[in-house]
Amino acid sequence: MTNKNQAIPYKIFLTEDELPKHWFDLRPDMKNKPAPMLHPGTHQPCTAQDLQPVFCDGVISQELNTTESFIEIPEEVRNFYKMYRPSPLVRAYCLEKALGTPAKIYYKFEGTNTSGSHKLNSAIAQVYYAKEQGITSLTTETGAGQWGTALSMACAYLGVDLKVYMVKVSSQQKPYRKAVMETYGAQVIPSPSDTTAVGRKILEAMPDTGGSLGCAISEAIEVATTTPNCRYVLGSVLNHVLLHQSVIGLETEAAMAKYDIHPDVIIGCAGGGSNLGGLIAPFMAKKLRGEENIRFIAVEPASCPSFSRGRFAYDFGDTGQTTPLIKMYTLGSGFIPAPNHAGGLRFHGMNSVLSQLYHDGFLEAKAYPQNEIFEAARQFARCEGILPAPESSHAIKAAIDEAMACKERGEEKTILFGLTGTGYFDMAAYMAFNDGTLSDYIPTDEELAKGFATLPPVKE
Amino acid sequence: MTNKNQAIPYKIFLTEDELPKHWFDLRPDMKNKPAPMLHPGTHQPCTAQDLQPVFCDGVISQELNTTESFIEIPEEVRNFYKMYRPSPLVRAYCLEKALGTPAKIYYKFEGTNTSGSHKLNSAIAQVYYAKEQGITSLTTETGAGQWGTALSMACAYLGVDLKVYMVKVSSQQKPYRKAVMETYGAQVIPSPSDTTAVGRKILEAMPDTGGSLGCAISEAIEVATTTPNCRYVLGSVLNHVLLHQSVIGLETEAAMAKYDIHPDVIIGCAGGGSNLGGLIAPFMAKKLRGEENIRFIAVEPASCPSFSRGRFAYDFGDTGQTTPLIKMYTLGSGFIPAPNHAGGLRFHGMNSVLSQLYHDGFLEAKAYPQNEIFEAARQFARCEGILPAPESSHAIKAAIDEAMACKERGEEKTILFGLTGTGYFDMAAYMAFNDGTLSDYIPTDEELAKGFATLPPVKE
Predict the structure, then answer these.
(1) Is A142 within a domain?
(2) Shortest Cα–Cα distance, B261 to chain A (Å)
(3) How many angstroms separate the CA of residue A54 from the nearest CA in chain B?
(4) pLDDT (tens digit, 9 = 90+) per residue, B412-456?
(5) pLDDT number for residue B6
(6) What angle do CA A46, A47, A53 make, to 5 degrees?
(7) What is the tens place of the pLDDT at every residue in A14-61?
(8) Are residues A140 and A215 in the same domain?
(9) CA distance, residue A194 to nearest chain B CA (Å)
(10) A291 and A152 in one domain?
(11) Which of A86, B21, B223, B254 is the least crowded, having the fewest Cβ atoms under 10 Å away?
């Protein structure tokens, strides 16, 4: 069904039947493939066997895939998707009017589920594969809390136990996020904690640390590898997570096709890269094949600028330096963003596919300090009626800047951005912004140098 | 377009074109009309002129209407609706499976907008009429905070100033609700406050009161009637609010018609009655016309049981006893629910149309203590993936009870309930429930007698 000559509605919904039946992996379309994950001891490419103590078998084959473009979505996962997907593609008529721009702005809104973000797309898939394998409990980390919430929901739905290591500063900023996870039956532990050896070691070295995703990952992995029938799951960074998130891009592509809409610019916020990677996947494939000339922009916080100021190098995914090595843009596994950084997007590295694309010039990056982000968030909330997550607001800010550039140049470009979620559990940060007490922290070169000093020596 | 022979999807969405063009008023279909609103001084039926110092002209004609069944939705309001409506009608497949019931359960979900509830449907309409009349500022009260949030959003969108009197105990329980309203530019004042004469009087009599909707209404009305170019708006109880909320029922009716679904039981939570009245309007009309035999159930908290234990009498809408008199089921304007009552649904009275229908036996009522409500909420969250508002959970609890009765009797009934909103700003209450510290408060007959003692003497 196409509606090419019809007026474009405020929200373009696909029907349940149009929900994608396959996820899409961009790697087969890449000429320069991302470098392989390396074993931290041998520095040899990781095998499936290397990953089995930590990850579920179902996602390992997806993680190591480089040849299959389409991977079937299991029926039980599709049925769960039907509770909150297809998600709406929204034409931002009110924002366009408020900006007075000739640009056409669209956003794919992933915040209509209780986890408040796109994270649920991968959570349900990962818990499904765990359960299929007979795993009875899972561990994970969470920063801003969206991933932990999503995973709690998926675990409650499929009846799998869950232990969440939550970055301490986030658990203090967001006590209600913790309460949501607990309502869904998860056990939530502020990290670093004394429940793991690596947590105790970090606490000894830095007793006052607010924690970091890197610390929390180390703790969760330690528990997964030392508990029978338990595995670790991760909400971003890895390639199988981007694969699951491709449902965002595939739905967007199908919705746009209905009205013959072609984006000129696609914008997404980037922490570990899962939302951005998922949103752009089918569109980037067209660019790589030379079929469409689209600009892609990754937007990150100035306080954790992995792309903008990071190095393209092999690095660990965690502070404890226990994970496989990933070739990525990174600030070093020892980098911890300042505690006054309010939202998520606090991971020190970036997904390897996106890193390669950035390195090869297919992807641009922008970094903003947080007051500008919240200013954009408030403007968006007042005209589009959705109070956005701070993470998502990075994409809003860049989209507004692009739309204003179109206004200056009189260009009618089509801008698409990912609105990954809602800010209902981020009100402490909004209060600080409203009060004028939210600080714009940007790390100095000296501070970044400390992070880079933790990069491991890897011969390539 | 009908899909009568197709499988019913998880979510039935209408298209933007199918969004109702008119609201529906049930009163023309009622044989026994609700008793007219009376002037508090003369005890004569209120005229439009009587109401003009308090309310906007556009809603006064709607409030006093008894003859027009369909009233056009202004285009600007319909365009705003398009940002978050039509809302989904959801088939609760997962809940049905978890309960093992042969019943078919549907819910109309009004929580997909940032206000988190159905309240936005009337907020935008009321602000539209205010702006049309040249009003520059509005006042209102809010209890649980959903109405205040909705009105803040509507006022931000249309550029009208707003002062919200928030029940003090709610503002303490929900500081982040306040922050959302402030992000949308509203001024939020915990009530009772020293900013009004009636507030000061109440504080003098009860310095430690946690406030009530009745108090907050008195304060908001005082400000509206003493400030130039200012009016008061109310989020429930009144007939024009039910009129605006009929968009819920009309969409539900249209979505059900697509699949030839006929509800046997319709359930809604009831505080002032706006959601329940809006949801049932077109279905109740069919019952009144003898076309369909549907059961209707109003669900209220045992701590504020207006229907179940109230009196059918003329009463004030506010504690300060300044409003017109409404014939309704009421606990008396002096009744204040215990502070440990966690959610909304704390108004002492009930809309006059619903009161008349209840009095005439067209509507049943049930009351539940709050731990049972939260138990149902948690069960629903874990299988349907939506963390519900405590208010909405009253309807969930009654729907589960009906579904379990169907299971016992082997009946395949179709149950419809209104899921008015999400509980993302109610986590303090969820935490209390999770911790086992949420108390089940039920007022004694002696406590209710104190409320009844505040009923005004009115000759009928």
Answers:
(1) yes
(2) 19
(3) 27
(4) 999 999 999 999 999 989 999 999 999 998 999 999 999 999 999
(5) 79
(6) 95
(7) 999 999 999 999 999 999 999 999 999 999 999 999 999 999 999 999
(8) yes
(9) 23
(10) no
(11) B21
Same domain, A228 and A296: no
Mean pLDDT of the region A68-82: 97
Structure confidence at residue A144 as a pLDDT band (50, 70, 90):
confident
Tell me which chain A residues have a C-beta less than 8 angstroms from the C-beta of B384.
83
For residues B129 and B96, state if they share a domain. no
Q: Same domain, yes or no, for A149 and A196?
A: yes
Q: Are residues B443 and B300 in the same domain?
A: yes
Could you tell me the two tokens for A19?
Answer: 């929900």
Please tell me whether residues A441 and A399 are part of one structural domain. Answer: yes
Q: Is residue B61 part of a domain?
A: yes
Residues 352-391 of B with CB under 8 A from A: 378, 381-387
Is the backbone of residue B43 left (phi > 0), alpha (psi -120 to 50) or beta? left
Residue type, B139: T
Q: Would you say the pTM of this structure is higher than 0.90?
A: yes
As for the ipTM of the complex, it is 0.93
Chain A residues within 8 A of B434 when measuring between CB atoms: 179, 182-183
* pLDDT confidence bin for B212, thresholds 50/70/90: confident
pLDDT reported for residue A377: 98
| Separation between Cα atoms, residue A126 and residue A74, nearest integer Å | 11
Q: From its phi and psi, is residue A73 left (phi > 0), alpha (psi between -120 and 50) or beta?
A: beta
Tell whether A331 is covered by a domain: yes
Query: What pLDDT digit, counting tens, does each position of A411-459 carry?
Result: 999 999 999 999 999 999 999 999 999 999 899 999 999 999 999 999 8
Last residue in a domain, options B202, B232, B262: B232
- Residue A181: C-alpha distances to residues A127, A165, A176, B287, B408 (Å): 15, 11, 9, 43, 33
Of B232, B260, B290, the one marking the end of a domain is B232
Amino acid present at B377: A
Q: How far is it, in rounded angstroms, from Cα A40 to Cα B288?
A: 74
List, as ranges, residues 139-158 from A with C-beta within 8 Å of B: 153, 156-157
Nearest one of B317, B362, B422 to B30, comparing CA atoms: B362
Confidence band for B4, pLDDT divided at 50, 70 and 90? low
Would residue B290 count as lying in a domain?
yes
For chain A, give the percent of residues with pLDDT over 70.
Answer: 99
On whether any CB of chain A is under 8 Å from the CB of B449, the answer is: no
Distance from CA of A227 to the nearest CA of B (A): 25
pLDDT surpassing 90 at residue A232: yes
Are B416 and B358 part of one and the same domain? yes
Gap from B97 CA to chain A (nearest CA, Å) = 12
pLDDT of A136: 97
A187 contact partners, CB below 8 Å, separation of at least 6: A161, A162, A163, A164
Confidence of residue B238 (pLDDT cuts 50, 70, 90): very high
Q: Which chain A residues are Cβ-neighbours of B94 within 8 angstroms?
A: 83, 157
Minimal Cα–Cα distance from A402 to chain B, Å?
23
Which residue range forms the structural domain that includes residue A168? 52-65+118-232
Tokens of A145: 């809390």
DSSP category for residue A15: -
Task: For the beta carbon of residue B5, count every other beta carbon within 10 angstroms.
Answer: 7
Please, what is the average pLDDT of chain A?
A: 95
With an 8 Å Cβ cutoff, are A425 and B430 in contact? no
CB contacts, 8 Å: B431 with chain A = 176, 179, 182
Using a CB-CB cut-off of 8 Å, the residues of chain B touching A186 are none
Interface test with A, best of B77, B176, B373 (most A CBs within 10 A): B176
* CATH assignment at residue A401: 3.40.50.1100
Contact residues, chain B, for A90 at CB < 8 Å: 83
Chain A (283-322) residues lying within 8 Å, Cβ to Cβ, of chain B: none
| B15: pLDDT strictly greater than 60 | yes
Q: Is the pLDDT of residue B61 over 60?
A: yes
B84: chain A residues, CB-CB within 8 Å: 385
